[in-house]
Amino acid sequence: MAKASLIMIAIAVLVTCLSSLASAAEPPHYTVQGQVYCDTCRVGFQTRLSEAIEGAVARLTCRNRTTGEVTLSEPGQTDESGYYNIHVDSNHEEEICEVTLDSSEREDCNEVLPDWYKARILLANNSISGVTDNYRYPNTLGFMIKKALPGCAQVLAELGFLPLN
Ligand SMILES: *[C@@H]1O[C@H](CO)[C@@H](O)[C@H](O)[C@H]1NC(C)=O
Ligand SMILES: *[C@@H]1O[C@H](CO)[C@@H](O)[C@H](O)[C@H]1NC(C)=O
Question: Among the entry's GO cellular component annotations, what is one (predicted)?
Fold first, then answer.
């Protein structure tokens, strides 16, 4: 009885060792998750009036640091909360990767802002105390609305950008 359970433990340990060896040899898997907003105040940053955009397309692009050759170009579409998920299962650790905005589903909000349409992202293992988180979160991105909402003056005043009266 005791001998049988020892053998079981030995097998369990062996299986665990083998599977961790196997996973170490696998290519890394990352999920790049970010959010796309409509900048309803035309200010170039997120405010409380910003709206998540559903159906926007963000694109993850990785390039060789020296040659600039594109090694990955993967689109992701946003859900109703403005979130996209782009899955990566190849190694781009030594490369320059960034997320840019491809398209917006909103006719009234599809202008691209020079400073708010791309975000750098590092696709390298940053294991904290042995725990590897496979999610990577780039900064939020935004399209600019054609005409600012009426409430924007108030919002900017709250942020200290304009006098209230
Ligand atoms: C990251 O993980 C991959 C796959 O597990 C491995 O090949 C690579 O050497 C790791 N890089 C670092 C910096 O730990
Ligand atoms: C970048 O491209 C050069 C030339 O093709 C190659 O030698 C190098 O290994 C590439 N770098 C990476 C990180 O893939």
Answer: extracellular space
Ligand closest to the CA atom of residue 68: 2
Would 123 be classed as within a structural domain? yes
Tens of pLDDT, residue by residue over 88-138, are: 999 999 999 999 999 999 999 999 877 778 899 998 876 655 656 789 999
Q: Percentage helix, strand, coil, to 5, in the chain?
A: 20, 35, 50
Ligand 1 centroid to residue 141 C-alpha, Å: 28
Whether 164 is in a domain gets the answer no
Centre of ligand 1 to C-alpha 122, Å, is 13
Q: How far is the CA of 28 from the centre of ligand 1 (A)?
A: 7
Q: What is the DSSP string of 83-128?
A: EEEEEE-S--TTSEEEEEEEE-S-TTS-EEPTTSSEEEE--S---B
Question: Which pTM does this prediction carry?
Answer: 0.76
Q: Please choose, from the candidates 85, 110, 103, the residue with its C-alpha nearest in 3D space to the C-alpha of residue 32.
A: 85
